[in-house]
Write a structure and sequence with these properties.
Layout: E1 3-7, E2 10-12, E3 18-25, E4 34-39, E5 46-51, E6 57-59, E7 67-72, E8 77-82, E9 91-96, E10 109-113
Parallel strand pairs: 2-10
Antiparallel strand pairs: 1-3, 3-8, 4-5, 4-9, 5-6, 7-8, 9-10
């Protein structure tokens, strides 16, 4: 059974940093492109960053230069390093595939940016 487990969220001040992790089990992780999404209250889920199985990355304009997506295929884990955080980055963050059939969604991890 495929399972996605996100962690690493929290409450930080503007300008701070967080590192999110997503462990994927029950799937051949190394073959999948992976992505991070976020959903703010009252808004649609949006794709934030994506990484191919070979490590090519792509970012939403709103996070370009501040967020870095990476992966460790040996650990079945995808990461999102978030720097220079802004209040508008506040959302629940999820990982999943960037295209095609989604894996079952995890519970997400809450990121709150507030002074």
């Amino acid at each position: 059974q495929v399972q996605l487990v996100e962690s690493g969220g929290g409450l930080v001040q503007p300008g701070g940093s967080l590192r999110l992790s997503c462990v994927v089990s029950g799937s051949d992780f190394s073959l999948h492109a992976m992505a991070w999404y976020r959903q703010a209250p009252g808004k649609q889920r949006e794709l934030v960053a994506a990484i191919t199985h070979g490590g090519i990355t792509n970012y939403a304009d709103s996070v370009k230069g501040r967020f870095t997506i990476s992966r460790d295929n040996a650990k079945n884990t995808v990461y999102l390093q978030m720097n220079s955080l802004k209040p508008e980055d506040t959302a629940v963050y999820y990982c999943n595939k960037p295209t095609g059939l989604f894996l079952p969604w995890g519970q997400g991890t809450q990121v709150t940016i507030s002074a």
